[in-house]
Amino acid sequence: MCAYCGVGCNLTLHVQDNEIVKVTSPHDNPVTHGNLCIKGRFGYQHVQNRG
Q: In sequence order, which residues have a C-beta less than 8 Å from that of residue 11 and are 6 or more positions away?
């Protein structure tokens, strides 16, 4: 579940070589209908920040 706001979007994390490469939301989700805001779609990068 995305933690950026109170909407409660479900996230699907696509992982390759132990790194998140893409974030989507299920098309049948009643909240998002498969769409995410810019923070939900690209905000995962801070999770794997190694710097």
A: 1, 2, 23, 24, 25, 36, 40
